[in-house]
Amino acid sequence: MNRRSAVFAGVAGLAGIAVAVPLLTPSSGKAAPAAMVPPFPTASSEASPGASSAARAPRTLRVMPLGASTTAGVGSSDFGGYRLPLGRLVAARPEYAIDFVGSRAQGPMEDNQHEGHPGYTVGRIRAGVDRWIEAANPDVVLLHIGLNNLNRGGDPDQAADEAGELVDRIFTLRPGITVIMQGLVPSTPGSKDQDISGAIAEYNRNLKRIETREQGAGRHFRFVKAPWLTPADRADATTPAELADGLHPNDTGYAKVADAFFEAMERAHSDGWFGK
After folding, report:
1. Where are the alpha helices (DSSP H) in the chain?
2. Cβ-contact 254, 80 below 8 angstroms
3. Of the four listed, 4, 19, 196, 228, which is most buried by Cβ atoms within 10 Å?
4. Largest Cα–Cα distance of the chain, in whole Å?
5. Is 60 exposed, middle or buried (0-12, 13-18, 19+ CB in 10 A)?
């Protein structure tokens, strides 16, 4: 075989293509009848396509966004809320995927289910959680609760106690579940600009104590600090507003809320909370 024929045959073989290559006889230098050169085996031709795709497929987690109007996406331009940017963040990760679950559906994305109930206090969410968890069977719950309590003058300590009872109930219903609770945005002014920042700070401190208790019991619970978002009355040309009103983020604000939840999910994944 001359050098050109040998190179061509080798390249074609590596590409997995059977080609006819002219061979020279040593005595005459004339081309002998073409011979079929079989391709080299490749990973795709050796392995079963079904087994290969199954090995690459990430685990899909059933994720329930649970809360009130912020969970429903009130304040965003399309009711995608934090769920829309969070879904995009997770979609870029190869290790796991998510399927949002819940009895309600809002937002422009196909996967737009949630359990967000505008106006609900922690107590009302606790009253419905048994049937919601039973129906959706989630692997992960993303909690954002308590703002309606404080906006109506509720005691932050009592609201946090009720939140703790809700968390305990979720773990009773689903012992192996992961619960990620994000605190309330510290810069939230309230629906009537009544300045509920002090109550929010106290409430968030109490939520952090829930983490100590739950993790001490071996449960997969994490408290996430909420981002500081710029209220409309503090915005200017260089610092755009991140709250749509006195209670709810706008699209920019929801992107930051999504970032906080995503970082917590990444940590839960690296800690092995999502299993295999």
Report:
1. 3-14, 43-46, 49-56, 69-72, 83-91, 122-136, 147-151, 156-173, 197-216, 251-270
2. yes
3. 196
4. 102
5. exposed
Count other Cβ atoms within 10 Å, centred on residue 5: 15
User: Which residue has 């009103």 as its token pair?
Assistant: 245
Q: Which helix or strand (DSSP H or E) is residue 111 part of?
A: none
Query: How buried is residue 6: exposed, middle or buried, by Cβ count under 10 Å (0-12/13-18/19+)?
Result: exposed
Sequence-distant (≥ 6) Cβ neighbours of residue 253 within 8 angstroms: 75, 185, 227, 229, 242, 243, 244
Per-residue pLDDT band for 193 (boundaries 50, 70, 90) equals: confident
Q: Which of 261, 105, 111, 95 has the alpha carbon at shortest distance from 179?
A: 261
Instruction: Report d(CA 35, CA 162) in Å as an integer.
Output: 80
State if pTM tops 0.90: no
Cα–Cα distance measured from residue 254 to residue 268, given in angstroms and rounded to the nearest whole number:
21
Determine if residue 48 is left, alpha or beta; phi over 0 gives left, psi from -120 to 50 gives alpha, anything else beta. Answer: beta
**Per-residue pLDDT tens digits for 51-73:** 444 556 779 999 999 999 999 99
